[in-house]
């Protein structure tokens, strides 16, 4: 056993290789949950059936055990073993009925895990991954599937009583209480159990599945938020249709309920038939919600809905397999969003997230395989690597197979494993069997950490008319994974005639008989060479089109070639990729900015009226955090920030007329489609910030005017940002006005906190003012994240005392109050060791101080890993 000693004593590491199936299956569970103001009582009755020799292990945490009865006999204390984590009953017969009664305290549960009070009018559950053990004693592991019947009882002041499945019965208890009994006919693991007790209103709709099932759709929220549930409802219906059309999967219950709460650790949760959502991922209304947030609502609604098949009907054998459901489901929601808006822009946004979150994670001390093989606290593994890199692995296999074969593969997966708890190996095996293509080499992607580098060299022979491409992959060794293997890398590529800009048709095979098929070359070895014939002149080579693999590309483009690709590439994503490569050279390798400026000047004025959304994305400049992830030592945040500012200033000046034109001539209300209007708003916001940077005197007046007259949150916030971040004379006035207007709209108020925390000169005093504000609340993760997110978006401030102290202080507070959130926040500091001195030593000392004080497994494991570099 590998043990780490810390303030709380000993922390145990759990290994994938130690997996053993449970000794007992649970055929049936009856839960009786009675909620009172100062405690709740939970009775459960389990019907268990032996599968293997061994004891019955029921997991339970923070439960006050009142009694335990086995086959009608109450057990004496010497007839079971009980510690802080589990209750063990030895020598059970092969079948038994286990009844327990426990007292729990949802009213004082600040960790937002298990059953907890979420505001004055609501109780909800969050059981993934291991919250159910805080409700009752149970084999709380995903490979134990059971049929749940739930009776919920509470005061009449909470009219809504929900649980998974079908409503069987309701009634009153005495004069002031009532109950509801629900039964979920599908077998499920305990992490998908949910119940809700509260005072909420509901938006209702219906959907008829392709199989003819009439499904009642319900979204529950507080009364004033009901009008903001329309967009989510439409997204839900669209998702249901999309999964039928693209994966042949129809919904399987007669109702689908969604409940919104602001007290939530993550985005949303796919509990069977009863999703629970962070308000930030379900409420949407252009007057209070930005376009980006609306897009996110649609994608999270789809994500949780798609889990019904990839996660719920087919679940994970153990938590090491988390990316089995998350990676695949993220890939599915990304594909859905591609169909919803422009596929190129969706891919741009998804790759941006991957590069700015997952790449840095994989480059630092928290790097881990998408399917980890050990952990201390599973909550720490809901990471960008599991989700986003996991999605890229599914995507690579889908790219390689093509639509038809990928569908045959997923059909086989659903056919084989419906109703089961499975592993990543079983997923890849089913996909291979169904498609007839052996994909087993992709398992390596799941099993090892790190971002591979793909180095490509090109040689053109004018006489022989050949182009030879030499490929080599490498990956930085990792102290816990010394022998990393080559991975299969699908390289989507194209050759363009350098003069005409026309694309060549590709045809060629490497030594291993791998073909370039549909423009995709599957590179499986450590090195390989391919040769194209009949190429008279040196072409421009476009590599990794559509970001066909999550790797760092190392190819010696000239700036002119990248500018060429920006002009001639045939899809928006590849154009964007060329801009990002150019910018990285300028910002990290001191290349001149001229080629970039000229290329933008050429492309944007034409593109903006046609595709404003894509035009807005081509103006992306890599964030300071992303740039930081590319710097492994002697990192000086001020230096990176200055270079980036200088580039933006040049862009502002060089295209001054263009920004004016965009702002004055483009009108979002004149657009046909939402995505076009969204593009115009994005472009105009960029134009405003460019004009303000340019020192154009009218920019502040325009921004102030827009702030006052628009009814659209994307515009209002864009204007406010320009005024506040540039210390405009109107800044104080708009901040005060925004607060007055939106003080009762929690999600809008989050933006007010965020903009101030992200002020370029935010100092200790300003941050202290925000955290001392009456509306700052440590019980609402969204509000905490508004400030941390704002601060972290400015690495210069993040790495000053103001940032480091804020994050360390917060980790100390959250260590006890909400360790899941505490552990996530502190990760922002994980690249401390790249800092130039003396900062590096100061931050290290602060982290060591933190390490000595914290107690939760979550924060302890995270800080230990961060310091083990
Ligand atoms: N399964 C959820 C999702 O990805 C993730 C989730 C929601 C979660 N709430 C959580 C994970 C709390 C850990 C803790 O859709
Ligand atoms: Zn998920």
The percentage helix is 40-55%
Radius of gyration over C-alpha positions, nearest whole angstrom: 28 Å
Tell me the fraction of residues in β-strands, as a range: 15-25%
Strand neighbour order, sheet with most strands = 8-7-11-5-4-14-17-16
Number of helices: 26
Bound molecules: tryptophan, zinc ion
CATH topology of the domain at 20-199: Immunoglobulin-like
Structural category is alpha+beta
Looking at this protein, list some descriptive labels.
34 strands, 5-stranded mixed beta sheet, Immunoglobulin-like, Aminopeptidase_N-like_N_sf, metal-binding, 22% strand, Neutral Protease, domain 2, 869 residues, alpha+beta, globular, protease, binds tryptophan, disordered N terminus, Peptidase_M1_dom
Task: Explain how this protein is built.
This protein has 869 residues and is an alpha+beta fold. Among the domains are: 180 residues, Immunoglobulin-like (Sandwich); 131 residues, Neutral Protease, domain 2; 97 residues, Aminopeptidase N, middle-beta domain (Immunoglobulin-like); 106 residues. The strands form nine sheets. An eight-stranded mixed β-sheet has the order 8-7-11-5-4-14-17-16, with no helix packed on it. A five-stranded mixed β-sheet has the order 19-20-21-23-22, with helices on one face. A hairpin with a 5-residue loop joins β19 and β20. α16 runs antiparallel to α17, α19 packs parallel to α21 and α25 packs antiparallel against α26. The N terminus is likely disordered. Bound molecules: tryptophan (TRP) and zinc ion. The site of tryptophan has 14 residues, from β22 and α2. Its cofactor is Zn(2+).
């Amino acid at each position: 056993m590998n043990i780490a000693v810390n303030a709380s004593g000993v922390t145990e590491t759990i290994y994938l290789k130690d997996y053993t199936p449970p000794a007992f299956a649970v055929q049936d569970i009856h839960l009786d949950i009675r909620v009172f103001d100062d405690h709740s009582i939970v009775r459960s009755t389990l019907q268990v059936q032996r599968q293997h020799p061994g004891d019955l292990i029921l997991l339970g945490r923070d439960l006050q055990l009142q009694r335990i009865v086995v086959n009608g006999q109450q057990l004496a204390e010497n007839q079971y073993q009980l510690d802080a984590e589990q209750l063990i009953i030895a020598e059970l017969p092969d079948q038994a009925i286990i009844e327990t009664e426990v007292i729990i305290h949802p009213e004082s549960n600040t960790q937002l895990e298990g059953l907890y009070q979420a505001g004055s009018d609501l109780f909800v559950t969050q059981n993934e991954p291991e919250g159910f053990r805080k409700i009752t004693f149970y084999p709380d592991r995903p490979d134990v599937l059971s049929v749940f019947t739930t009776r919920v009882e509470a005061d009449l002041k909470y009219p809504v009583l929900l649980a998974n499945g079908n409503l069987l019965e309701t009634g009153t208890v005495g004069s002031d209480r009532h109950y509801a009994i629900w039964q979920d006919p599908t077998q499920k693991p305990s992490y998908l159990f949910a119940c809700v007790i509260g005072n909420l209103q509901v938006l209702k709709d219906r959907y008829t599945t392709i199989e003819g099932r009439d499904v009642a759709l319900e979204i529950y929220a507080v009364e004033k938020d009901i009008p903001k549930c329309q967009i989510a409802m439409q997204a839900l219906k669209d998702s249901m249709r999309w999964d039928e059309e693209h994966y042949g999967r129809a919904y399987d219950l007669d109702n689908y309920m969604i409940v919104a709460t602001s007290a939530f650790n993550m985005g949303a949760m796919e509990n069977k038939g009863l999703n629970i959502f962070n308000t930030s991922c379900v409420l949407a209304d252009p007057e209070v919600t930005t376009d980006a947030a609306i897009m996110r609502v649609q994608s999270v609604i789809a994500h949780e809905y798609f889990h019904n098949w990839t996660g719920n009907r087919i679940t994970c054998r153990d938590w090491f397999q988390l990316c089995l459901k998350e990676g695949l489901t993220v890939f599915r929601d990304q594909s859905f969003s591609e169909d919803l808006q422009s596929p190129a822009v969706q891919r741009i946004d998804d790759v941006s997230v991957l590069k700015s979150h997952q790449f840095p994670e994989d480059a630092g001390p928290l790097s881990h395989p998408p399917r980890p093989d050990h952990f201390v606290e599973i909550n720490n593994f809901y990471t960008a690597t599991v989700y986003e890199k996991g999605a890229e692995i599914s995507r690579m296999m889908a790219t390689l197979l093509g639509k038809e074969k990928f569908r045959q593969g997923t059909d086989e997966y659903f056919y084989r494993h419906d109703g089961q708890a499975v592993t990543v190996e079983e997923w890849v095996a089913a996909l291979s069997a169904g498609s007839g293509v052996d994909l087993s080499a992709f398992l390596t992607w799941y099993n090892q950490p790190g971002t591979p580098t793909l180095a490509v060299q090109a040689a053109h022979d004018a006489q022989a008319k050949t182009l030879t491409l030499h490929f080599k992959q490498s990956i930085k060794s990792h102290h816990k994974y010394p022998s990393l293997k080559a991975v299969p890398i699908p390289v989507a590529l194209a050759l363009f005639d350098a003069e005409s800009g026309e694309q060549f048709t590709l045809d060629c095979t490497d030594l291993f008989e791998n073909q370039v098929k549909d423009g995709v070359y599957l590179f499986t070895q450590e090195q390989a060479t391919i040769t194209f014939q009949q190429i008279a002149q040196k072409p421009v080579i476009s590599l990794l089109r559509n970001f066909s693999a999550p790797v760092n590309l190392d190819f010696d483009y000239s700036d002119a070639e990248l500018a060429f690709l920006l002009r001639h590439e045939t899809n928006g994503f590849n154009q964007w990729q060329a801009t990002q490569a150019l910018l990285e050279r300028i910002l990290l390798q001191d290349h001149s900015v001229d080629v970039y400026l000229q290329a933008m000047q050429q492309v944007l004025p034409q593109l903006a009226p046609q595709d404003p959304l894509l035009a807005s994305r081509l103006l992306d400049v890599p964030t300071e955090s992303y740039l930081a992830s590319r710097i492994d030592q002697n990192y000086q945040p001020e230096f990176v920030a200055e270079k980036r500012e200088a580039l933006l200033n040049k862009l502002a000046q060089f295209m001054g007329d263009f920004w004016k034109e965009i702002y004055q001539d483009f009108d979002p209300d004149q657009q046909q489609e939402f995505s076009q209007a969204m593009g115009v708003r994005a472009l105009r916001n960029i134009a405003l910030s460019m004009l303000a940077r340019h020192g154009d005197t009218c920019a502040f007046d325009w921004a102030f005017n827009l702030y006052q007259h628009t009814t659209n949150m994307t515009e209002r916030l864009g204007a406010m940002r320009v005024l506040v971040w540039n210390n405009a004379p109107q800044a104080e006035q708009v901040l005060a006005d925004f607060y007055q207007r939106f003080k009762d709209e929690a999600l809008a108020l989050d933006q007010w906190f965020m903009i101030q925390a992200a002020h370029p000169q935010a100092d200790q005093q300003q941050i202290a003012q925000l955290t001392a504000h009456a509306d700052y609340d440590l019980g609402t993760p969204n509000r905490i994240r508004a400030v941390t997110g704002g601060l972290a978006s400015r690495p210069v401030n993040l790495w000053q005392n103001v940032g480091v102290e804020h994050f360390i202080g917060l980790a100390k507070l959250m260590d006890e109050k909400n360790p899941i959130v505490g552990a996530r926040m502190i990760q922002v500091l994980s690249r401390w060791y790249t800092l130039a001195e003396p900062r590096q030593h100061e931050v290290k000392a602060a982290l060591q101080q933190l390490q000595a004080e914290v107690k939760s497994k979550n924060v302890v494991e995270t800080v230990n890993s961060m310091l083990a570099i």
